User: Fold this.
Amino acid sequence: MRLDGRRESSNVDDRRRAGGMKTAGGLGIGAIVVALLIAWISGKNPLEMIGTMGLGDQPGVEQTSDREFTAEEQAFATFSKQVLAGTEDVWTEVFKANGLTYTPPTMVLFTGGVQTGCGGATSQVGPFYCSADQCLYIDLSFFTQMKEEMGAGGDFAYAYVIAHEVGHHVQNLLGTLGKAHSQMSQLSQEKANKISVRIELQADFYAGVWAYHDNKMFGSIEDGDIEEALNCASKIGDDYLQKQARGYVQPESFTHGTAKQRERWLKLGLSTGDLRRGDTFSISESQL
Assistant:
């Protein structure tokens, strides 16, 4: 992905020197179950999962640290700020073309744990967006995990992760996210999961829309980039993850969509760049 000379976003809250978080209940980071490691991609709302463990309602205390960042960590930070800047440039223009005004989110960089408008969270939950404070949160070590543990590395794959979370912010600004969450709160878990899938697939589509316009503005896409993003999308599908984890799938528990669905919607955004093509809510399940 070509980013040389690109600006870095100033809408960044770098809390990495906080170095972690302790909770009033005394649970350290290491005591949290391994399942949270991929909560972002495994079908659960990470903050809801934290709440069930007694962490979400307790006042976290971020611990300061004087450690130095590695060259890789600094490179990831610069990269993330440039990608975020690209989302700002793209969505400002897309919103303007549709008679709307885009207000960018803040990206919070943290290490270990962080306090958010949605509650306390640890790095094990992966990147996430909190509509309460309009921030997206990411521990940059997640990119290393993508490469080494998931086989989903590559700069464009990392950019897709950031763009997906910004996609949730776009949903929030358009009122889609709030409406969907309101509906989910009144439904059974299985039916709520079906709405969650539609939310996530639309965020994948919006990530593709961003990539389409970013490439048009800056010529950012290089050979192999699209393949990296599609590979990542396929490896974070609910069916793929469940098969990897336990050898079988439970479609009723899907909350992010299958590998094929995630690839399809990301590819649709990438190929069209048309905001109007991303309505995942008014079509049948067979069309997702």
Q: What stands out?
A: The CA atoms of residues 108 and 119 lie 14 Å apart. The chain has one domain: 12-287.
